[in-house]
Write a structure and sequence with these properties.
104 residues, mainly alpha, Arc Repressor Mutant, subunit A, 4% strand, DNA-binding
Length: 104
DNA sequence: CTAGTGACTGTTT
DNA sequence: AAAACAGCCACTA
């Protein structure tokens, strides 16, 4: 696997995020060797194929919140539920403590 | 080719 | 603490 698209690089990084931890878009870009491309990470997540094995729900924004998306809040609700099921705790404002849960 | 858009972020108001 | 700004760049029309 010599050549990988930037999307595939992002997916590989997200696959390394352990259960019960979260990481940010900017961190994924940096770990993938493409610093400053946080927006592309979000774009890559939106473009995930149906048969992926990428824990996309562990990727949140730099504020520690689940990012909102165009179209509706259904996915955000699912994302939060998945994280809570892994033991990630949200505060009363719907934010995660990056101090406690961020990866690496 | 240009222009608009967006699962973002760090800095400055 | 929250909002505005300026970078960022692949994708689409």
């Amino acid at each position: 696997m010599a050549l990988m698209s930037s999307y595939e690089r992002f997916y590989e990084v997200v696959r390394r995020v352990p259960r019960g931890r979260v990481t940010t878009y900017g961190t994924v870009a940096r770990e993938a060797g493409l610093p400053g491309r946080a927006r592309q990470v979000g774009y890559a997540m939106a473009a995930l194929p149906d048969d992926h094995d990428v824990p996309w729900h562990r990727v949140i924004n730099a504020k520690g919140e689940v990012s909102t998306r165009a179209g509706g809040h259904a996915f955000e609700r699912i994302q939060r539920k998945l994280l809570e099921a892994e033991g990630v705790r949200f505060d009363e404002r719907g934010r995660i403590s990056l101090e406690d849960f961020s990866w690496p």
